[in-house]
Specification:
Elements (H helix, E strand, L loop, with lengths): L6 E14 L1 H6 L2 H23 L4 E7 L6 E7 L2 H12 L7 E14 L14 H7 L8 E9 L12 H16 L5 E7 L8 E7 L2 H11 L3 H4 L2 E3 L3 E5 L5 H4 L3
Antiparallel strand pairs: 1-3, 1-4, 2-3, 2-9, 4-6, 5-7, 5-8, 5-9, 6-7
Length: 249
């Protein structure tokens, strides 16, 4: 029997994409728009307080293209907290003008392919804890996409032995390490949670680096033979202070 790899699992993650109903927003009265903006600013400040207390994290980006207008990413210790956060958001005045475009539920994940010494508490090592419970980088650009591992007769990831899978992933990681300082990556597992198996979130200061790393990684065997990729969302950062200008009509 092929051995399934265990994982370390951290904060739960929700990617929440919304489209702005600009027509309805412009038809609203100025007092309605003002109330919606003020309430939303208070919610942004509440998210910041959660992050400052290291009880979660968040990021928000403007999506480029027609798939959505805004992407919000939330990290929380439990799925219940994500559910409550989403419900609270949906009850805001601004949400009346936001049309749900897409969402993705997952959990921050580290696969345990590398040998582990007996007696060492790897999960609580500082470097592992930092990856499991990250503060999302507020870099200029973002790319999010889901992916699967191929399950076909001659190219079935789930029939490969654990050591083979581990070696392929290690070679794959060496490509990624060439982008240290240029790309930050968050891998989240979504098997049983959403339609794909993993979510990949990349942050960059230079949007072109997003194209370069995805392109180069396609040539690694783990991607070229066993990778299947979904849609891509690309966005640029919107600061808390910039939402007022963004919503101004």
């Amino acid at each position: 029997m092929v051995e399934a790899v265990k994982t370390f699992d951290g904060w739960y993650c929700l990617h929440d994409m919304r489209t702005m109903d600009w027509t309805a927003w412009k038809l609203a009265s100025e007092s309605e728009r003002h109330a919606a903006r003020m309430e939303f600013q208070q919610m942004l400040e509440k998210w910041e307080q959660v992050e400052a207390a290291n009880k979660g994290s968040h990021a928000h980006y403007k999506i480029i293209g027609q798939k959505a207008d805004l992407m919000f990413i939330f990290l929380r210790p439990t799925v219940d907290e994500l559910s409550d956060l989403e419900t609270e958001f949906n009850k805001t005045l601004l949400a009346d003008f936001l049309i749900p475009a897409h969402s993705y539920l997952s959990v921050v994940e580290i696969s345990r392919y590398q040998p582990e010494k007996e007696g060492v508490d790897y999960e609580n090592l500082p470097r592992i804890q930092e990856r499991l419970y990250p503060i999302l980088p507020k870099w200029d650009y973002i790319s999010f996409y889901p992916m699967n591992r191929r399950r076909q007769a001659d190219e079935n990831w789930y029939t490969l032995e654990k050591n083979v899978r581990g070696k392929l992933l290690y070679e794959h990681s060496k490509t990624g390490r060439q982008y240290a300082g240029k790309i930050k990556q968050i891998i989240t597992g979504s098997i049983g949670f959403d339609d794909w198996e993993w979510g990949v979130t990349l942050f960059a200061h230079d949007v072109l680096e997003l194209k370069k790393i995805v392109y180069e990684m396609r040539f690694d065997e783990v991607s070229s033979r066993y990778g299947e990729f979904g849609y891509f969302f690309i966005g640029n950062k919107i600061e808390k202070e910039e939402f007022a200008a963004y919503l101004h009509v």
